[in-house]
Amino acid sequence: MKAGLRAVLPVLALLAACSPERKGDDLVFVSDEEANVVHVIDGASGAKEGDLVTGARPRGLALSPDGRTLYVAASNANRIEAWDVAGRHRLHVYDSGSDPERFAVSPDGHTLYIANEDHSAVSFLDLASGRITREVKVGPEPEGMGVSPDGRLVIATSEAASTAHFIDAATGRLIDSIIVGSRPRDALFVGGKLWVSSEQRGTISIIDPVSRRIASVIDLVAAFPDLDSAQAVELKATRDGKRAFVAMGRGNQVAEIDPASFRIVRSFPTGTRNWGIALSPDDGRLYAASGLSGDVTIIDLKANRVLRRVTFKGRPWGVVAARR
């Protein structure tokens, strides 16, 4: 090796070590119900990129189908805010009905279905007009919201009644209500089935949406006997439907479930009280927001390992990831 090259190599190595980690292709938005902001971080490095100042107590988050608009439920302000993902500025403020928490976006992007927790109702918000077109009465303390891939069926979970409600999206008619595990939190369609998580019971009910009968139950308490508290909160699945994940609340983990067999494949450690989870747009990373430890865990789903944790001063609640 030439003397000049030997001199240059240590310098190059030092520069590589000191250079910042490459940014990811996605931005991660984290609602903080205590700080009244949505934190923005880089999906790969976890580097903090700023805050969106929102109405009081931001909780539920969702993206428009094209990924360009972020919707935020400001629970104590009784509104839904629309933010431009690329420019990070607020586009619109919508009257959401009383105490919005979680909500779902229709597949065509025209309607938000909003759980009004202290009003025992689901509001249909038409985004074009900015008006609530109908209000559907459901059980007490509705929280989880889901919508079928074809947009025809809306699901609301009632925490206090341990019930999943089936609503016709076109008419707002309440079709059926079935009993699930205690304090249901989230509803997600995976592979033609409806999954409903139960925080207190620590189960996921797998429901046939046609017959509206429970076909199977995944029991996290039985699967994790060494945990003091195995809960089931937010649900997410990869776009190909081959991997599913559940935030385990005070179990302080995210469990991965095989949707074909309903078998628990593995789990990843998170911060304390993991409430919200999200997948990166390419399904390569998972983000877990933990309120009591005030952090977000970034998990590499290709290597199946925790990459890092990003700590905030408040109480992270929800999380979504969008392309830059």
UniProtKB/TrEMBL annotation:
Swiss-Prot/TrEMBL keywords: Signal
Domain YNCE-like beta-propeller span(s) in chain numbering: 37-185
UniProt keyword Kinase, yes or no: no
Protein name: PQQ-dependent catabolism-associated beta-propeller protein
PROSITE patterns: PROKAR_LIPOPROTEIN
Keyword Signal: yes
Organism name: Sphingomonas quercus
